[in-house]
Amino acid sequence: MALTREHFSLNTLQWITVSLGESTGEPGSVGWEFDRPSFLARQPRVLAEVGEAGFPAVMLEVLPTQTLQAYARVIADSGLRVTPGYVHIGLSEEFGLDHTGDDEARFRWFDGIRRRAEESLFMGLDRVFLAADMAPGRPRIDEAAAVGHAYDAARLDRVTDMIGAAAEVLRAEGVTAALHNHVGTWIETEAEYDHVLDAVPASLLAAGPDLGHLAWTGADVVAWVAAHADRISDLHVKDMDLGIAASARSTPTPYFDVMSRRFFLEPGLGDVPIREALAELPEDFAGTVLVEVDKPSMEPFASAKTSWAWIAENYPEGRS
To answer: Is the pTM of this model over 0.85?
Structure first.
């Protein structure tokens, strides 16, 4: 079954990251609007614009300010389907915590993972993207992005163990984790991503790549998808100016400095070989292709319409 328009969904980042590229990366310099009570009133209009742009589905994103029941009502009113959401987890040591010998604290470290499982199941989903966390103050954010800066093999093994443990928590709840790479995290480069996938069994952890973030690091995303096609459950796509990416890799460049340029682009406006990479997916691929423009190159609604226009131009209607 070839990809059709029904495979595609949208992450609504366009509406909350318009000014993020001007951020210094300091906490509070730009708010994460999903966390703000004021976004509750905007949410129905944002979802309506997703549908008006042409998208049939949206990524699961229960706001921290709303109940599951309220979110379900807003989604029902929008007429959209929901597709797998995203959850991240970090190393306790990076928050100044040591859970050695403290089983209760270790258990509680995964509370956010369990909550995302609950949200997913409530909305009829059984998969979720799972990533390492990222935050201002980390060297791959503040010093050099997309080059595997400050690599530490022992730390990567600890991150791998944490990802595996989170995947086990999700599986116990009936949700499959799909490993998600992201520039700025300790799972940034192709080698780091493959290290985790090689270490954690496929029966426990699927692959849920972000093709744009892999391309940012210089990876051949077409070859990567071809090599991992049978393990991919869902994936993110975005376009980029890969000339900016190459320049930023050649000279140590902080994450937000790259983001402040016209770097992230809507599908079809940049250099990432999205169509060629998606063509490597199996014929029976039944997952979600999530369009995610980290920072839109135009007004949010126009960004969503431009993204859908690319989909409509390149993929037929309906699942065959």
So the answer is: yes
Helices (H), the chain: 39-53, 68-78, 103-108, 111-122, 139-142, 153-172, 190-199, 211-216, 221-228, 242-250, 255-259, 274-278, 300-314
Backbone angles phi, psi at 216, to 5 degrees: -55, -35
Return the residue matching tokens 């797998």: 84
Q: 299 CB contacts (<8 Å, ≥6 apart)? A: none
Return the C-alpha torsion angle 168, 158, 113, 224, nearest 10: -80
Structure tokens at 50: 């997703």
Q: Which residue has the tokens 């849920």?
A: 208
Nearest-Å Rg of the Cα atoms of the chain is: 19
Residues 6+ apart with CB under 8 A from 54: 305, 308, 309, 311, 312
Tokens of 272: 């990432």
Q: Are 169 and 117 in contact (CB under 8 A)?
A: yes
Q: Name the residue among 240, 136, 116, 121 with its Cα closest to residue 180.
A: 116
- Nearest Cα to Cα of residue 70 among 112, 33, 37: 37
Q: How far apart, in whole angstroms, are the C-alpha atoms of residue 248 and residue 14?
A: 23
- Cα dihedral 193, 86, 154, 97, rounded to 10, equals 170
Task: Mention every residue, 6+ apart, whose C-beta is less than 8 A from residue 196.
Answer: 156, 159, 160, 163, 179, 187, 205
Angle at 198 between CA 277 and CA 231, to 5 degrees: 40
Dump pLDDT digits (tens) for 18-34: 554 444 444 344 446 78
DSSP-derived letter for residue 116 is H
**Cα–Cα distance measured from residue 99 to residue 29, given in angstroms and rounded to the nearest whole number:** 31
Per-residue pLDDT reduced to its tens digit, 89-129: 999 999 999 999 999 999 999 999 999 999 999 999 999 99
